[in-house]
TrEMBL record:
Transmembrane segments: none annotated. InterPro entries: VASP_sf, VASP_tetra. This is VASP tetramerisation domain-containing protein. Residues 1-21 form the VASP tetramerisation domain. It comes from Anguilla anguilla (European freshwater eel).
Length: 26
């Protein structure tokens, strides 16, 4: 269970970084 949560968190962080990068370049 904890491993799944960590994986989810990493995916969320990646998505947030992507969104931040998009708004930075825009």
């Amino acid at each position: 269970m904890r491993k799944e949560l960590t994986k989810l968190k990493e995916e969320l962080i990646d998505a947030i970084r992507e969104e931040l990068g998009k708004s930075n370049t825009a």
